[in-house]
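Quick question, first post here. What does this chain look like in 3D?
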Amino acid sequence: MKKKGICYYDDDGNIVREKLMVMYNKSGTISVEEADFSRLTANFSEIYQWAQQGKKIYKDWMKIYGKDNGVEDVVHIIRNAKTLLDCRNSIASKFGVSKMSAEVLAHLTLYQIVGMRYENMKEAYELYSLATKQLKPLFEKLKTSDSDFGSDSDC
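> Answer (accepted):
Ran it through. Tokens below.
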């Protein structure tokens, strides 16, 4: 069966072809292969976890960007932090967000941080919220299923 990908045009008008890939680490050897239906069920729980993280990150970022001078405060913290750990902890404590959300923000470039818009974050948050809502029943079913779909017993 021919595997299909997703095609679209980027901002410069170039065609981009994407395929879902799966990375394996077996005895220290890493390989990447195209995903197919038999491998996808083993990754549903991971996709659900990523959706939950995305929802949490955008919810936290909306707290920051919803405050007066929130972006300026983040930029100030990043410029004055001595270490990434210091930066992460300062952002997390100042805005009451998770350390994970603060660290992801600290890893962005200043250009990306200043360029983000609250409306885009809200849209992303709503998308991740929908994804978690739709994936949760599937995740719960796989978690309680007797089949080995979705189990990562070696991890």
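The two ends are 30 Å apart (CA to CA).
The first helix runs from residue 37 to 40.
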